[in-house]
Amino acid sequence: MAAPCAEMEPAAPPPSPPPAPTPAAAPGSAGLVCAQGRNLRAVLCQRCGSRVLLPGAATFARRELLLPAMRKKAAAAAAGGGGDVLREHWLVRDMFSFENVGFTRDVGNVKFLVCADCEAGPIGWHCLDDKDSFYVALERVAHE
Ligand SMILES: [Zn+2]
Fold first, then answer.
1. Residue ranges of region Disordered (predicted)?
2. Ligand 1 mean position to 109 CA, how many Å?
């Protein structure tokens, strides 16, 4: 009756995210991602053209991140323009991979990335809990 060696339920492996589909299939990133998942083109500030990343400095990543609305006008910022959930990003592992970038003050444990020259932004997201991950939203930058 007693089963000394009860059959071990095989531990269910933790659900792992499915492998990303071919990056080139992503609508917003078409033509921007090379076969290795890196940025084919330089990443520039949309407003002043300042260079943020050189080609190949980042990898394409999908993650849902909430970024405050771009500060286009002081009035819009004063109105508290809310934010956007952005899903397509350039992921940079090393802060020194940036050509130019600025940071906002911490908001909780998050810093937002802005253009180093004109402070347009936020163009990206960085969490202080993960010092080696800097996200730059594709929709918030221009590509050369
Ligand atoms: Zn700029």
1. 1-27
2. 24
